[in-house]
Design brief:
The complex is a heterodimer of chains A (297) and B (435).
Chain A (H helix, E strand, L loop, with lengths): L1 H13 L1 H4 L2 H21 L2 E4 L2 E6 L3 H7 L2 H33 L5 H8 L1 H4 L2 H11 L6 H8 L14 H26 L4 H8 L4 H28 L4 H6 L11 H10 L4 H31 L1
Chain B lengths: L1 H22 L12 E7 L2 H6 L3 H8 L2 E7 L1 H14 L5 E4 L1 H10 L7 H4 L7 H4 L6 H6 L1 E2 L2 E2 L2 E13 H6 L8 H11 L3 E2 L2 E2 L9 H14 L16 H17 L9 H9 L5 E5 L3 H4 L11 E4 L12 E8 L5 H14 L2 H9 L7 H5 L1 H6 L3 H13 L11 H16 L4 H15 L3
Parallel strand pairs in B: 1-2, 1-3
Antiparallel strand pairs in B: 3-11, 4-5, 6-9, 6-10, 6-11, 7-8
Classes of the chains: A mainly alpha (297), B alpha+beta (435).
Chain lengths: 297, 435
C-alpha cells in the first residue's frame, strides 16, 4: 500500500507538466474537443435522428451545401447582420466610451443605467422587442405616429427585417464594447495628451492621432470577443423572427439548427455548423493577425 | 339538522365508494403497484387539468407517476432527444398528424390495440372505445395500429365579432366568396374610433400551413396526388394559395408574414379584427376577461365552403405509450392513459375548456347546462364529424415540407407570382419528401 502511494507520488513528481493540467484537459476533451470531432465526423454522414445509424457519404453534404440556395441565403444574411451590427457597435461603443471618459456630474449613475441592456437576459429582451417591433400592436410605430411619421413594417418586411434585428443587437451589445474600451481609455498614459495640448492640438486631432492609435489593440480585442458571439447570433434572431419573414433573416447558424432539430437531418446540420465554425475561426485568425501587427507597431 | 346532514354525507360517501369500486371492479388496478413511470407532456390546457389529479391515480394504482411538462417547442425537442437517447420515457403527448410516421418508423410508439382489448388491462365496457370521435382516433392510427388515445380534438373555426355583425346587419359567411366580401366590408371601417381589420390569420410560413390546409382542401387542392407526388402546384391548390394570400394582404393586419397564432389571436382579442380563422381551442383566450376585450362578443362558425365544399381539418393531441419502455412500464403507462382518458376526466377537461375527444363529454348535461357558447360547440362538433384527419403532408419529414409550403404562403401574401413559387416548391417537395 505504502509502495503504491510512493509510486503514484513519484509518477506525479516526474510528470508534473502532464498531471496538473490533466483534469482540465479531460474536461475540455469531453465537453469541447469530442463534440467538435464528432460533429466533423457527422458532417460526412447522412442520418435522420431516430432512424437507423449514420451512413458515411463522404463530401456529399458539402457538395449539397454549395448548391443549396438556402445555404447562400444564410451566408448572405450572416454577413449582412454581423457586418452592420459589429461596425455600429464598435463605432458607437468607442464614441460613448470617449464621452464617459470625461468625468461629469451624474456620470456614474448614467453609466449604470446604460449597461442595463447588456446585463439583461437575451431571450427576455428579445421577447419584449418582438412585441415592440410588431407593426400592428407595437409601440415603435406609435412613437413614430406621434411625430407624424409613417409606421414601418420592421421585422415583418423582408427589406427591413435585418436592420431591425441589427437595431436590437446594437442596443443590447454596444454597452459591452463601451465597458471594454472605457477600461482601456482609463489606463492610457496622460503625457501624450498634455504634450499635444501644449502643441496646440484640438479635440479632433487628439482623438485621431492619440486616442485612436493607443486604443486600437483594445478595440480589436473587443471586436474579437463580440464577433465570437455575433457571428453565431441565435437567441435574439430565433426569438424575434425565427428567420422570417420566409427566410429573410435566417442566418447560416439558424439554418443549421433548423436542419438538425426541426428537419432532423443531423448529418447536413453538422455540415452547416462546421462551415459556420470555420468562418468564425477564419475571421478570428485574421483579427488576431491585425492585433499582433498593431501591437508590434 | 346536523345529524341529518351527517347521515347524508355518510350515505353519499358510501355510494361514491361503491360506484368507484364497481368502476374499478373488473381489472386489477394495483397489478403494477410500485412501478415508476415517467411522462413527457406539453404545457397544454389538458396537462394543466390532469396534473393535479395524479395523486388520485397514484393512490388507486400504487404506480408512481413522474410528469415533466415543457412549453411546446422545447417539449418537441426534448421528446425527440430523449427518445433517441433511449432514456427512461414511458409515455408522452403527441400530435399524430405531425410526428406519427417518424416516431413509428423509429420504434418510439407502442401499438395500443392489444391493451385496449385485453380484459386484464382494460375496463373495456366502462372505458368505451366507441365513445371517442372517429376522425381524431383515425388520425392516431398508423398501418392499422392505434398509437395514441385522443385527449383533445382540434379544428379551426371562423370566429367573428357577432356584435358588429348584428350592428351592421352582416350575415355570417357561408362561402369563401362571402368570406372575402365580409372581410372587405369591415376592413378599414372605423368602429368606436378604431380602424378595423377585415380578418386576421396566420401568415408566418410553416405555422400558417395548419390553418391554410382548410382552404387548400375547400378549394379542391391537396398536399399530394394519388401517386404520392406533390400536388401543391395544381390549379386548385394555386387558387387556395392566392385566396389565402389576398385575404391577408388586402384585408389583414400589417406585417402578416410574421403572424403566428399568438399575434393573430392578440389582434382579435384587442378588438381590432372583425374575424379570425384559427383553432377552436383559442375560445378559452377570446372568452378570458383577463386577456380579451371581446368577451361575450364572439360568434363561431365552421370553415366557409369553397369550390370543393366545406372541408375542415381535424387534428388532435393524443397520449401515447413509448415503444422504448420496458413491457411492465408500458402496461403501467397504459393504465395511466386509460385513466386519464376515461369519461370522467375527458368531461372534466372539456369543462375546463379543452375540446375533449369523447362524444359523451359534449352531450353530458353538466357541460350542456353550463355551455354559454353553443355555436362554438355546434361548429366544433360539426367540424369533428366532417373533418379530414390528414391535416399535414403525408410524409415522414413533415416539418421540412411544411417549411417549403409555408414559403409559398409568404410569397402569396407578398403579392409575388404564386404559380411560379408553388411550382418551385412542388419540385423541391418532390425532391425532399421522405415516406
Amino acid at each position: 500500500m505504502k509502495k503504491l502511494k510512493e509510486t503514484i507520488i513519484n509518477f506525479l513528481d516526474n510528470h508534473i507538466s502532464i498531471a496538473f493540467p490533466a483534469p482540465a484537459m479531460i474536461t475540455l476533451f469531453i465537453v469541447v474537443i469530442f463534440p467538435i470531432i464528432y460533429n466533423i465526423y457527422m458532417s460526412f454522414s447522412k442520418w435522420k435522428i431516430g432512424l437507423g445509424s449514420p451512413k458515411f457519404i463522404g463530401l456529399q453534404n458539402y457538395i449539397d451545401a454549395f448548391s443549396d440556395p438556402r445555404f447562400w441565403n444564410g451566408l448572405k444574411v450572416m454577413f449582412l447582420f454581423s457586418g452592420l451590427s459589429l461596425s455600429l457597435e464598435i463605432v458607437l461603443g468607442l464614441l460613448i466610451a470617449v464621452y464617459f471618459n470625461k468625468e461629469f456630474k451624474g456620470s456614474n449613475f448614467i453609466q449604470t443605467i446604460y449597461i442595463f441592456p447588456f446585463a439583461a437576459t437575451p431571450v427576455a429582451i428579445a421577447l419584449i422587442w418582438r412585441i415592440m417591433l410588431n407593426p400592428q400592436i407595437g409601440v415603435l410605430n406609435y412613437f413614430l405616429s406621434l411625430f407624424g411619421l409613417p409606421g414601418s413594417l420592421w421585422i415583418s418586411d423582408a427589406r427591413t427585417v435585418i436592420i431591425s434585428l441589427v437595431l436590437v443587437d446594437v442596443w443590447k451589445w454596444t454597452p459591452m464594447i463601451t465597458l471594454i474600451v472605457l477600461a482601456g481609455l482609463k489606463s492610457l498614459p496622460k503625457d501624450p495628451y498634455e504634450a499635444a495640448i501644449i502643441d496646440g492640438a484640438n479635440a479632433f486631432h487628439v482623438f485621431s492621432y492619440i486616442t485612436l492609435p493607443l486604443i486600437r489593440p483594445v478595440l480589436i480585442t473587443a471586436l474579437t470577443l463580440r464577433s465570437l458571439d455575433n457571428l453565431k447570433e441565435f437567441d435574439i434572431i430565433y426569438t424575434i423572427t425565427q428567420g422570417g419573414p420566409g427566410i429573410a433573416s435566417e442566418t447560416l447558424y439558424l439554418y443549421s439548427y433548423k436542419t438538425a432539430f426541426s428537419f432532423f437531418k443531423a448529418g447536413y446540420g453538422s455540415t452547416l455548423i462546421i462551415i459556420v465554425f470555420l468562418l468564425v475561426l477564419l475571421f478570428n485568425v485574421a483579427l488576431n493577425k491585425i492585433r499582433y501587427r498593431t501591437e508590434v507597431l | 339538522m346536523k345529524k341529518k346532514l351527517f347521515s347524508i354525507i355518510f350515505l353519499l360517501s358510501i355510494f361514491l365508494m361503491f360506484t368507484t369500486m364497481i368502476a374499478l371492479a373488473d381489472i386489477n388496478w394495483r397489478q403494477f403497484e410500485g412501478v415508476e413511470i415517467r411522462l413527457l407532456m406539453n404545457k397544454h390546457p389538458f396537462t394543466t387539468f390532469i396534473e393535479p389529479k395524479i395523486p388520485e391515480f397514484e393512490e388507486n394504482t400504487g404506480i408512481k407517476v413522474i410528469m415533466e411538462v415543457f412549453p411546446e417547442d422545447q417539449f418537441r425537442d426534448k421528446r425527440l432527444i430523449e427518445l433517441n437517447a433511449g432514456g427512461k420515457v414511458d409515455g408522452y403527448m403527441i400530435m399524430p398528424g405531425q410526428a406519427k410516421l417518424h416516431y413509428w418508423k423509429a420504434g418510439w410508439l407502442a401499438p395500443l390495440e392489444g391493451y385496449m382489448t385485453d380484459p386484464d388491462l382494460t375496463n373495456i365496457q366502462e372505458w368505451d372505445l366507441g365513445d371517442f370521435f372517429a376522425g381524431p382516433m383515425k388520425g392516431a392510427r398508423i398501418e392499422g395500429h392505434q398509437i395514441g388515445v385522443v385527449i383533445n380534438a382540434e379544428a379551426s373555426l371562423l370566429s367573428y365579432r357577432k356584435d358588429l355583425f348584428e350592428q351592421f346587419n352582416v350575415k355570417v359567411p357561408e362561402t369563401m366568396a362571402e368570406l372575402e366580401e365580409t372581410a372587405k366590408f369591415f376592413h378599414k371601417k372605423v368602429v368606436d374610433g378604431k380602424e378595423m381589420i377585415g380578418i386576421t390569420l396566420r401568415g408566418k410560413d410553416a405555422a400558417a400551413t395548419s390553418q391554410f390546409v382548410d382552404f387548400l382542401y375547400s378549394f379542391g387542392g391537396s398536399w399530394t396526388d394519388e401517386k404520392g407526388n406533390a400536388n401543391i402546384a395544381s390549379p386548385e391548390s394555386i387558387e387556395a394559395f392566392k385566396f389565402y394570400g389576398k385575404l391577408l394582404r388586402e384585408y389583414g393586419p400589417k406585417g402578416p408574414t410574421m403572424y403566428h397564432w399568438a399575434e393573430s389571436t392578440s389582434t382579435f382579442m384587442d378588438g381590432t379584427a372583425a374575424m379570425i380563422f384559427d383553432a377552436n381551442v383559442f375560445k378559452s383566450l377570446y372568452e378570458n376577461p383577463k386577456e380579451s376585450k371581446v368577451v361575450g362578443k364572439v360568434g363561431y362558425a365552421t370553415v366557409p365552403a369553397g369550390s370543393a365544399g366545406r372541408l375542415p381539418h381535424v387534428s388532435n393531441w393524443s397520449l401515447a405509450v413509448s415503444g422504448t419502455a420496458t413491457p411492465e412500464c408500458q402496461k403501467a403507462t397504459w393504465l395511466f392513459v386509460q385513466w386519464a382518458t376515461n369519461k370522467e376526466n375527458e368531461l372534466g377537461a372539456l369543462l375546463s375548456g379543452v375540446p375533449a375527444g369523447r362524444e359523451s363529454a359534449w352531450t353530458d348535461p353538466k357541460f350542456v347546462s353550463t355551455d354559454n357558447t353553443p355555436d362554438w360547440t355546434a361548429s366544433s362538433l360539426q367540424s369533428f364529424a366532417i373533418g379530414q384527419p390528414q391535416w399535414n403532408p403525408p410524409v415522414l419529414n413533415v416539418s421540412e415540407i411544411r417549411d417549403i409550403v409555408g414559403k409559398v404562403i409568404v410569397d402569396s401574401i407578398e403579392g409575388k407570382d404564386v404559380a411560379d413559387s408553388a411550382k418551385k416548391a412542388a419540385e423541391l417537395m418532390n425532391k425532399t419528401m421522405e415516406k
